[in-house]
Design goal:
It is a single chain. It is built from 4 helices and no strands. The chain has about 100 residues and is mostly helical. The longest helix is centred in the last third of the chain and has 33 residues.
Length: about 100
């Protein structure tokens, strides 16, 4: 008997992953990985950008060691850039209001 009888079988097990156990968590994770690799949605929309950020966050959560530290460094550099830009914009705004 299956562990989750209400769950549908991933369609990749019919085409690409024939012979693998569809109830195996590693095989399911590999099927999801193949879905992510073959997705070709537009990245220039807001939804596409948010999906890209979510995939980066999921990937960095799964990563370990040096890759995790590289992801942390990238996020810190982005945050520093945003803070510096906001500081510069607020400084210009206050100078314009005072002048």
């Amino acid at each position: 008997m299956t562990e989750n009888p209400g769950a549908e079988r991933h369609p990749r097990f019919n085409d690409d992953l024939v012979g693998l156990d569809p109830n195996d968590p590693e095989a399911q994770a590999f099927a999801e990985h193949l879905d992510r690799m073959q997705r070709c949605d537009p990245a220039f929309t807001v939804e596409g950008s948010l999906r890209g950020v979510a995939e980066f966050a999921d990937g960095s959560n799964r990563a370990g060691g040096l890759r995790w530290w590289a992801a942390v460094l990238i996020v810190c550099l982005i945050l520093i850039g945003v803070l510096m830009s906001a500081w510069d914009t607020l400084g210009d705004l206050f100078a314009w209001l005072a002048g």
